[in-house]
Specification:
By secondary structure, the chain is mainly alpha-helical. 36% of the residues lie in helices and 0% in strands. It contains two helices and no strands. It has helices spanning 49-71, 86-106. The longest helix has 23 residues, at 49-71. The termini are far apart.
């Protein structure tokens, strides 16, 4: 018949100052070299930058997915940033082109010697 595993009981005569009795059923003895508080095997408890980045990206993906499924319209909970509006982007590009055109008109026309065409008669 199989042996029953039971909690070892302490003797009444030596209950105060004795060590717990060893039994053959305890197979996972802790050796002194596997102490997690030893300086050789100290494990860092701080999260790595990769873990922080992974958590942040995961939360952003979760937030955008929930926003899309809840609002069925936007990934930003109904907020419309300017960079998602095509009319604003076209206006910015037009302003940028006008600024570049004005800048180019204000510059003196300087040509480098290697760019001039030599005309001989």
């Amino acid at each position: 018949m199989a042996q029953l595993r039971s909690r070892p009981t302490a003797n009444k005569s030596t209950s105060a100052s004795s060590t717990p009795p060893s039994s053959p059923t305890h197979q996972h003895d802790v050796s002194p070299t596997s102490d997690p508080s030893s300086s050789d095997e100290q494990i860092s408890r701080l999260p790595s930058p990769l873990d922080i980045l992974r958590l942040t990206v995961g939360l952003l993906i979760l937030s955008t997915a929930l926003s899309y499924f809840i609002t069925s319209d936007s990934l930003t909970w109904g907020y419309r940033p300017p960079w998602t509006q095509p009319a604003r982007i076209k206006a910015w590009l037009k302003v940028a082109a006008d600024v570049v055109r004005e800048y180019m008109q204000k510059q003196p026309s300087t040509t480098s010697p290697h760019m001039t065409k030599v005309v001989t008669s």
